[in-house]
Write a structure and sequence with these properties.
mainly alpha, 3 helices, single chain
Length: about 160
């Protein structure tokens, strides 16, 4: 084991100068690339820009105007289609409303209320702390129903 460690240390001592030399070469290369980039940036900043090309009337200008006119006509057609769609939406009758649906909780509460109304509908107990008064107009007579609010709390 000791021999293996000594051999590894010797190998490291022999390779260490080579590794340092390689690292130094990499740093030098990086510095050279950085200097080259700096020189390129200086050249781009100091050199004047190229002159613009001279303007000439050619066949390309006519084609460009024609394409621009075609694009404007296409946009006008799109606008007319949008206006037609808006007109159709305004003139068509609205769709019928969805059918009335009752949730399970509301139906259960209504059913419980009907049950209580049929069992003790002719007496109103006003001395209860949970008294709630619901009046049904039954052909001129008023039927009072009292029930505990715990049955009918909305969730």
């Amino acid at each position: 084991m000791l021999l293996l460690l000594l051999l590894l240390l010797l190998l490291l001592l022999l390779l260490l100068p080579l590794l340092l030399l390689l690292l130094l070469l990499l740093l030098l290369l990086l510095l050279l690339l950085l200097l080259l980039l700096l020189l390129l940036l200086l050249l781009l900043l100091l050199l004047p820009p190229p002159p613009p090309p001279p303007f000439t009337l050619t066949k390309n200008v006519f084609t460009q105007w024609l394409l621009l006119l075609l694009l404007l006509l296409l946009l006008l057609l799109l606008l007319l289609l949008l206006l037609l769609l808006l007109l159709l939406l305004l003139l068509l009758p609205p769709p019928p409303p969805p059918p009335f649906t009752m949730t399970k909780n509301v139906f259960t509460q209504w059913l419980l209320l009907q049950l209580i109304a049929h069992i003790g509908g002719h007496a109103c107990f006003t001395n209860s702390p949970c008294f709630v008064r619901i009046s049904f107009f039954n052909g001129g007579g008023i039927i009072c129903v009292s029930f505990m609010h715990l049955f009918f709390m909305l969730q």
